[in-house]
Design goal:
Helix content: 10-25%
Oligomer: single chain
Largest sheet: 9 strands, mixed
Structural class: alpha+beta
Number of helices: 6
Distance between the termini: 8 Å
Shape: globular
Radius of gyration: 17 Å
Length: 206
């Protein structure tokens, strides 16, 4: 299984010439991590009040990762979009609540702007008081739970109903908050979607 060390070397070493050996530690679930990279953050406007580590950050990616692929680390709450030339864009995300996150290998078969949303039958059955009122669907817009963009994840040619999408709840980034999908701040998912192509892989790690 790929771990965080496969994805990241510090942004500092990425732009400072020779890459130094990282200082490694074990996180709470035994994943080997680069402590400096795990706390590094992006720069720029942050109107959502995100922790700096969840701001978009370009990081170094180890060789052997395919450009275009997306990797989601549910422990660190990071999404990595692998780029050409050995780098990746890292975004902070929210992931599924306990028991609802679904790891696996998927294909992105659709990228939608301001998508409509309808809760699944399972969501309505599990929490009818929350989702029953939306059984008829919600049109796209700034208050839609899928936010500004949605990447539709398929497996074996079948829609899994899992999405990587925006959210009108930016305060949820960095938490386990969803019914299984991976969510980003709207501005960040717009930037991500501009560089994603249908057929790209999305790997949601355990």
């Amino acid at each position: 299984m790929l771990t965080r060390r496969h994805f990241i070397i510090t942004t500092t070493t990425l732009f400072s010439g020779a890459i130094a050996a990282p200082a490694l530690a074990q996180d709470a679930v035994g994943i080997e991590i680069d402590e400096a990279a795990d706390t590094a953050g992006g720069t720029g406007p942050n109107p959502w009040g995100l922790h700096q580590r969840f701001m978009p950050t370009r990081v170094a990616a180890n060789s052997g990762l395919s450009a275009g692929d997306i990797h989601v680390d549910p422990t660190a709450r990071f999404l990595y979009h692998i780029e050409e030339g050995g780098t990746a864009m890292r975004y902070g995300v929210a992931v599924g609540r306990a028991g609802l996150y679904q790891p696996g290998n998927f294909r992105i078969q659709r990228v939608a702007e301001w998508p409509s949303w309808t809760p699944t039958a399972n969501m309505i059955a599990r929490e009818p008081e929350v989702y029953g009122q939306y059984a008829g669907g919600v049109p796209g817009g700034p208050n839609n739970p899928l936010g500004a963009r949605a990447l539709y994840l398929f497996a074996g040619g079948r829609d899994t109903y899992l999405r990587i999408h925006g959210t009108p709840q930016p305060w949820s980034i960095g938490t386990s908050a969803s019914s299984g999908c991976v969510r980003l701040v709207n501005d960040h998912v717009i930037a991500l979607a501009e560089n994603v192509r249908t057929g790209n892989r999305a790997i949601l790690h355990s």
